[in-house]
């Protein structure tokens, strides 16, 4: 079995994560599709060709991640590709933001990615090969009113990814961040029309992105052609952050 072809994608059952999982499967990878609910994970994995498998895991729970990583290794082999995509928002103005909303977002978006990076690192180091992509956001670069928790989590991913790039580079492991702008998914569908119009007005390419736009860049960063790219933040945002 070629272990470089086994990939973990978190939050794989819908939105950007499902497009990433499809893209990796299209290039011949077997994808461990991680979702909060087993039935959704398995249903989605069954749609992919070539031996992808669904797993249930709450990424914010360190014990669950440890257990899930062991299950992936047991049933598929050692994954040498990791895409941390699972993410949540709990927007609110700073003065009204509860501790719960702050923690919930940091726990999934930042700590969840940390848990999976830590779990996968030993296998990658041993193989002297690995590709890690963390899904950030342009908000982690620019900030966004009403999203102190989300912006902090996505900015934190950038620092963590650069640290990992430096720490594991000598073992052939790359770690990069893809920072999407406004992408059409459930996360953005519920925003008020005024916010959508404002986002569009700030996007030089004049359209919202699709999950496939993000998946194509992730496909590059986990592939052979990007072997000399590490510690970078690649915005897939139609020019929004310029
Ligand atoms: P969605 O809300 O459509 O999907 C989020 C995914 O994460 C779902 O599969 C969800 O599972 C999963 N998830 C949430 N919490 C957990 C958890 N604790 N453990 C495991 N899985 C979890 O979001 P998008 O597809 O829009 O976003 C994907 C990523 O891209 C996120 O990190 C987001 O921050 C980022 N992003 C999105 C942008 C956009 O415009 N859409 C812009 C910039 C960044 P379930 O279905 O069970 O809820």
Describe the structure.
This protein has helices at 15-26, 38-47, 62-75, 99-127, 139-142, 148-168, 186-189, 193-201, 211-221, and strands at residues 6-10, 30-35, 53-56, 81-84, 130-135, 173-180, 233-236. With 242 residues, it is α/β, with parallel strands linked by helices. The chain has one domain: Rossmann fold (3-Layer(aba) Sandwich). It has a seven-stranded parallel beta sheet with strand order 3-2-1-4-5-6-7, with helices on both faces. Helix 2 links the parallel strand 2 (30-35) and strand 3. Helix 4 (99-127) runs parallel beside helix 6 (148-168). The radius of gyration is 17 Å and the shape is globular. The mean pLDDT is 96. Bound molecules: NADPH dihydro-nicotinamide-adenine-dinucleotide phosphate. The site of NADPH dihydro-nicotinamide-adenine-dinucleotide phosphate has 27 residues, from helix 1 and helix 7.
Compact overview of the structure:
The chain is an alpha/beta fold.
Helix and strand layout, with pairings?
Elements: E1 6-10, H1 15-26, E2 30-35, H2 38-47, E3 53-56, H3 62-75, E4 81-84, H4 99-127, E5 130-135, H5 139-142, H6 148-168, E6 173-180, H7 186-189, H8 193-201, H9 211-221, E7 233-236
Helix pairs in contact: 1-9, 3-4, 4-6
Residues 10-11, 13-17, 35-37, 58-60, 85-88, 108, 135, 137, 180, 182-183, 185-188 line the site of NADPH dihydro-nicotinamide-adenine-dinucleotide phosphate.
């Amino acid at each position: 079995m070629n272990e470089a072809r086994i990939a973990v994608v978190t939050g794989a059952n819908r939105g950007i994560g499902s497009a990433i999982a499809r893209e990796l499967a299209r290039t011949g990878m077997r994808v461990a599709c991680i979702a909060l609910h087993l039935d959704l994970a398995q249903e989605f994995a069954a749609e992919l060709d070539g031996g992808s498998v669904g797993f249930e895991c709450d990424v914010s729970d360190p014990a669950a991640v440890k257990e899930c990583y062991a299950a992936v290794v047991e049933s598929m082999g050692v994954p040498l590709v990791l895409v941390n995509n699972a993410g949540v928002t709990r927007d609110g103005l700073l003065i009204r933001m509860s501790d719960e909303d702050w923690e919930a977002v940091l726990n999934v978006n930042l700590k969840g990615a940390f848990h999976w990076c830590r779990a996968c690192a030993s296998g990658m180091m041993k193989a002297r090969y690995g590709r890690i992509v963390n899904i950030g956001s342009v908000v982690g670069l620019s900030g966004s009113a009403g999203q102190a928790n989300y912006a902090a989590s996505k900015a934190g991913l950038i620092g963590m990814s650069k640290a990992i790039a430096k720490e594991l580079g000598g073992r052939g492991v790359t770690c990069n961040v893809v920072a999407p702008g406004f992408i059409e998914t459930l996360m953005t569908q519920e925003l008020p029309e005024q916010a959508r119009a404002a986002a569009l007005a700030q996007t030089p390419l004049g359209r919202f992105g699709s999950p496939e736009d993000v998946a194509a860049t992730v496909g590059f960063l986990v592939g052979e052609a990007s072997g000399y790219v590490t510690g970078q933040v690649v915005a897939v945002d139609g020019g929004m952050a310029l």
